[in-house]
Write a structure and sequence with these properties.
The protein is of the alpha/beta class. It is built from 10 helices and 15 strands. Bound molecules: NADPH dihydro-nicotinamide-adenine-dinucleotide phosphate (NDP).
Length: 332
């Protein structure tokens, strides 16, 4: 139900994109930098000039997820400029220990996207029985390698490895996941830091959808170090009133119903039904859960029951396609 058209004035055609959606209400807008974002073939944008800034629209939820495409396009343009102006090729090293199937998929997707935007990708796949000393030695080499600008150790690590020790061995300046204790502390104190990419992607979508988040009631379900806690910090940084809910929260349904912004990062398939969602709320579903349908087919679902929640939500991200691709775009 969405179509795109260029403005008739040729002078504006390379700068303005117009978009007509069937429903005006469930679109998310993102900042469009005309100088850095070449148009993506097949993508549908809209842009309007607002307060002197170019804005571009795209959809979340049942709508088409373009966000990541726009960011990836920006990223590719930045990488090309770094190459042209400075002869520099940004390099991302991804370390995977063991053969966890989900981790293999994530690492593969990250490597593919890294190459797609013109960066160098260094994949280090280590055996499940790799010792801590071997892993720390590899991190030391990557820290010292000038061709490597970002280092990511895919979590979870096998249980014999101490994740905290390993993550804190990464040079904080190369800690693209933002999990190093220095970056966690900087984020917690509102200072410039490497920010974990999943919550950052969520925040970007929320900011663009709502503009200011100040004073909004935000509920984050899940308190992990990689999603729930940094998400709460970022929302607090944007002056939301934040509640972090978890497995011991007494009345989770009532807590969720208070939310103007509901972020689900639990890891339980479709745990949050539509009647926990306040009408008009913005729902960000971080969960990625693999289930088998009654017909025996494998399917990915989020932590939110999408069909019932989409009926009441003002906007909602889909799984797959919502937060997942944004995470990779933000990582790059
Ligand atoms: P964790 O398992 O580390 O944390 C889950 C959190 O959910 C915990 O804080 C836990 O509470 C809480 N929880 C569990 N059960 C309930 C319950 N019944 N009621 C309320 N809270 C509950 O998961 P992650 O944060 O690492 O990941 C969460 C989800 O997000 C997963 O599906 C994961 O695959 C997905 N994910 C998606 C990413 C993306 O790119 N889109 C990136 C990272 C994760 P407690 O602390 O009390 O145990």
């Amino acid at each position: 139900p969405i179509s795109a058209e260029l403005p008739s004035d040729p002078g504006l055609q390379d700068r303005f994109w117009y978009w007509h959606g069937a429903s005006g209400r469930k679109y998310i807008h993102s900042v469009y930098e005309p100088d850095c974002c070449p148009p993506l073939p097949g993508a549908i944008y809209v842009a309007v000039r607002r307060k002197g800034k170019m804005r571009i629209a795209m959809a979340v939820g049942r709508f088409t997820p373009f966000w990541d495409g726009v960011l990836m396009s920006c990223e590719a343009a930045h990488v090309a400029r770094l190459k042209a102006d400075h002869g520099l090729v940004p390099g991302l090293a991804v370390v995977l220990v063991g053969e966890d199937p989900a981790s293999q998929v994530y690492v593969g997707a990250k490597g593919k996207s890294t190459v797609e935007v013109g960066m160098a990708s260094f994949e280090h796949k280590l055996a499940a029985d790799t010792s801590e000393a071997e892993l720390l030695a590899l991190i030391g080499r990557l820290n010292a390698d000038p061709a490597v600008h970002g280092i990511l150790v895919q979590l979870p690590l096998p249980s014999h490895l101490n994740s905290d020790l390993v993550i804190n061995a990464i040079d904080p300046a190369k800690d693209v996941d933002g999990f190093h204790i220095s970056n966690v502390g900087l984020l917690g104190t509102g200072q410039k830091s490497m920010v974990p990419c999943t919550p950052l992607g969520c925040l970007m979508m929320l900011r663009d959808h709502h503009g200011s988040l100040a004073g909004m009631e935000a509920v984050v379900v899940g308190r992990s170090n990689i999603v729930g806690k940094p998400m709460a910090q970022l929302l607090l940084g944007d002056s939301c009133t934040v509640t972090i809910a978890h497995s011991k929260t007494r009345d989770l349904a009532a807590t969720c119903r208070r939310a103007d912004i509901l972020v689900a990062a639990v890891g339980r398939p479709e745990m949050i039904p539509g009647d926990w969602v306040r009408p008009g709320a913005t729902v960000i579903d971080v969960g990625i859960n693999r289930i088998t349908t009654p017909e025996g087919k494998a399917k990915l679902v989020g932590d939110v029951h999408f069909d019932s929640a989409a009926k009441v939500a003002g906007a909602i991200t889909p799984v797959p396609g919502g937060v997942g691709p944004m995470t990779i775009a933000c990582l790059l």
